[in-house]
Write a structure and sequence with these properties.
Oligomer: single chain
Shape: globular
Number of helices: 18
Number of strands: 17
Length: 509
């Protein structure tokens, strides 16, 4: 048995997140393997052009049970969605009885996989947010490859990262932008600095530093940057600039883990400088996400990297509601140096998404639901809501009602190729800042591939990760000097780095 290397840079605690090793290092954003949405998007399939396989009958609809995190069958919005989906699919000769099951009350990421393996879940479609590998290893999840190969609408919404992930792990599908942190700053604050224009024109590390320092020196914030317990938000801004372009990098002709590279050393030295000068929130290691966000909302911190798209939308809406339209967010590019990109996107597997239960007796019907929700009709339901509730049609326009702000997609979060016609949207679904964050994310995109390791040396990796977390935290906080990094590398190699060396050379050499 094998498992993915966990690469989370979490210093307060070790979380299990999948990252990866890339076989080449982009020297600029344009040389990276960018998702398809960064290029000219292909036109979505026209409504009705897909063959809609017959499912059930008016007198005998096929029941499809779905379980999704935070989607509760008792909610009015969910009940309205169920009725609308059933009616619209029936118009295509697909008669289903859609049922949302009650999700676990807490700890979804761990509770759902256990429930499936214990036979406590009889849903046909299951949304996972981690823990799915143990389930798929037992043969409990369906290979989605043949379903996708014969699809029309799902296939039209897949980006390059989706395609790569499905090649490596065909059990989960999540049609959504990569969860890439993109840094944002209030425009009204940024425009009060002289260094802002220089940063946008040439976002070098030095220009980033000058901008952050001016924000603090002018009293526009207490700290320029804040985070929530780890380095991933900061790394999305600065990793590539220092040469940390993937989980693994080539150094002196050998492939090594980036954590033990000279590029990582230079980056940590920079973070230590920010910390020493009060530009980095001193509580970044212990902040929870809500504390981090509050420090941003109240102006204590000036820059936060939020997930492109949906999260930036929340941040932007909150800022403008409190400080006015001039406080709309400007999305900042990643720092420029050895390379320029936000966090490299792990394409080893999906970290979350929908799976089809192998024990389901209604697999085709379950897939039909996913395919319909990716169709033009389904996407309007998913992204906009139910006519007469979240929107009305006035002339040839979809006009949002006061219930729309509380609506969110229960199936596919992607806005890729979402451009309803006849009727069209009277106003966009995303704010300009949220749209800009997605555009920037695709523009500065790079892929990262993980390696697989035997279970027998997985404990070494855990020890190495803990060692890195300890040293990184101490170096940034000034407890250890940057010179201690060389000692860290020696301890890293003794803890297991030397054992991994042959695997890395075989995989990338």
């Amino acid at each position: 048995m094998k498992k993915l290397i966990s690469m989370a840079l979490v210093l307060a605690m070790v979380l299990c997140m999948f990252t990866g090793c890339q076989s080449s290092e982009p020297t600029a954003a344009t040389s990276a393997a960018a998702p398809a949405a960064s290029a000219e998007p292909a036109a979505p399939a026209a409504e009705g052009s897909s063959e809609w396989p017959a499912i059930g009958s008016p007198d005998a609809p096929v029941t499809v049970k779905v379980v999704v995190k935070d989607v509760f069958p008792s909610e009015e919005d969910v009940q309205d969605l169920v009725v609308a989906v059933q009616e619209k699919m029936a118009a295509h000769g697909q008669y289903i009885n859609l049922e949302f099951c009650e999700p676990p009350a807490s700890g979804y990421a761990s509770a759902m996989p256990l429930a499936v393996m214990n036979g406590e879940v009889d849903a046909d479609l299951i949304y996972f947010q981690g823990g799915d590998q143990a389930v798929s290893a037992q043969g409990l999840l369906e290979d989605l490859t043949p379903y996708i190969a014969s699809s029309t609408y799902v296939k039209s919404l897949m980006e390059d990262t989706n395609v790569e992930k499905l090649k490596n792990y065909p059990y989960l599908l999540w049609l959504a932008p990569p969860r890439t942190p993109t840094p944002g700053v209030r425009t009204d604050l940024a425009e009060q600095t002289e260094s802002y224009a220089a940063l946008l024109a040439d976002p070098t590390v030095d220009n980033y530093y000058a901008f952050m320092k001016e924000l603090k020196d002018k009293g526009l914030c207490t700290y320029a940057l804040t985070a929530d317990g780890g380095l991933n938000r900061l790394d999305s801004i600065f990793n590539h600039a220092f040469g940390v372009t993937g989980t693994c990098v080539e150094e002196n002709g050998q492939w090594i883990f980036a954590k033990a590279s000279q590029a990582e050393k230079a980056k940590l030295e920079f973070y230590a400088k920010l910390y020493a000068e009060g530009l980095l929130d001193p509580d970044f290691l212990t902040n929870t996400w809500d504390v981090m966000e509050q420090r941003w909302y109240d102006g204590t911190a000036a820059i936060v990297a939020g997930t492109a798209g949906a999260t930036v939308q929340i941040y932007d809406t909150k800022m403008t509601s409190v400080y006015g339209d001039s406080a709309t967010l400007t999305i900042l590019p990643p720092a420029k140096g050895v390379s320029q990109a936000y966090t490299s996107v792990d394409v080893t597997k999906e970290s979350r998404g929908f799976a089809i239960n192998s024990d389901s007796e209604n697999k085709d019907a379950a897939w039909a639901v996913l395919e319909f929700m990716a169709s033009p009709e389904g996407r309007i339901l998913d992204k906009v809501g139910v006519e007469g509730k979240q929107y009305t049609v006035e002339g040839d326009k979809i006009v949002f009602t006061d219930k729309f702000p509380g609506w969110w997609a229960r199936f596919w979060d992607t806005t890729y190729n979402f451009a309803p016609q006849d009727p069209s949207l009277a106003e966009p679904v995303l704010t300009p800042a949220a749209s800009e964050s997605l555009e920037m994310m695709y523009q500065y995109s790079a892929m990262d591939h993980s390696i697989l390791i035997p279970d027998e040396i997985a404990p070494q990796w855990d020890a190495m990760t803990n060692l890195y977390n300890e040293y990184a935290a101490d170096i940034i906080r000034g407890v250890k000097s940057i010179d201690s990094f060389d000692q860290f590398v020696e301890e890293w190699n003794n803890a297991g780095g030397n054992d991994f060396a042959p695997l890395l050379q075989e995989a990338f050499g």
